[in-house]
Design a protein that fits this description.
Length: about 270
């Protein structure tokens, strides 16, 4: 557990890896809109044994500061560069979900230190012109003090079959969200970063190997947009997960972990 500071904004991150972990292949998990570090609870332990793993909490969530917004993707990139410098990390594999996937795409376009990129449940813009569709971000929000609304929000982010099979997991996620998720002002500041971001016409500039994982029952980001993203990236790999929603890395964690670790091993 550590903190880095970007112009007075304290940024919390966790770093882990055993003595034999591959520090050259440090894996950094970048979180989704409004969610705390809990969202990587299924991937972090699986990766940290073989690789050094870092989970920063975006400004506005968890134990990081929540300065007044709006925020931008470039601000989140600056934050992450500060965290990597504090952790003395050079080359990285980036894994980003939703907003974190957008941040990962932008970093991979700008910085040579990215070895590979994995994006989960994301798209290159909030408005997907080629699909004539917009991201449905509001379903991800719920007041951290309202457990009923949190439950409805979690259920909207997973498939209906998962909700019926695993109500205990839904309850556990709700408890984590109470403790770690963004307040409404911080959430709206993060939303602003999504709405000002658009790499639709620049994807050819992202030349690192990129794995695009997407739940085919995702109602937040249309699967068609994610498939198009994979097709337009020069080294994109499409990994659809059937009958899984936006939180595909939680509800289909075993499949996602196997796919992710295989990709990391290859690169």
């Amino acid at each position: 557990m550590a903190y880095a500071s970007n112009d007075g904004v304290q940024l919390y991150y966790e770093i882990d890896g055993d003595d034999n972990a591959d520090t050259e292949g440090t894996t950094v998990f970048i979180g989704d809109l409004g969610y705390g570090a809990w969202q990587w609870g299924w991937q972090y332990p699986a990766v940290a044994g073989e690789y050094t793993a870092i989970v920063p909490e975006l400004r506005g969530t968890g134990r990081s500061d929540s300065p007044a917004g709006p925020y931008s993707v470039s601000t989140f990139i600056d934050d992450l560069m500060i965290v990597l410098a504090d952790a003395e990390v050079t080359s990285v594999h980036l894994v980003g979900a939703g907003l974190g996937g957008m941040i990962g795409l932008a970093i991979a376009r700008q910085h040579a230190r990215v070895t590979s990129l994995t994006v989960i449940g994301t798209a290159p813009a909030a408005t997907m012109r080629k699909q004539n569709a917009d991201a449905d971000l509001e379903t991800l929000w719920a007041p951290p003090t309202d457990r009923e609304s949190l439950t409805e929000s979690v259920e909207a982010a997973v498939s209906s079959s998962f909700s019926h099979r695993h109500p205990d997991v839904i309850d556990r996620i709700v408890e984590w969200r109470v403790d770690e998720d963004a307040s409404r002002p911080a959430w709206e500041s993060q939303v602003a970063a999504i709405h000002e971001f658009d790499l639709t016409d620049c994807l050819y500039e992202i030349t690192v190997p990129t794995l695009v994982i997407h739940g085919m029952a995702d109602t937040v980001w249309p699967p068609t947009a994610a498939k198009q993203l994979a097709m337009e990236l020069p080294r994109g790999e499409w990994a659809p997960i059937e009958d899984a929603g936006h939180l595909v890395h939680a509800e289909a964690s075993r499949v996602v972990n196997d796919t992710l670790i295989g990709f990391l091993t290859d690169h």
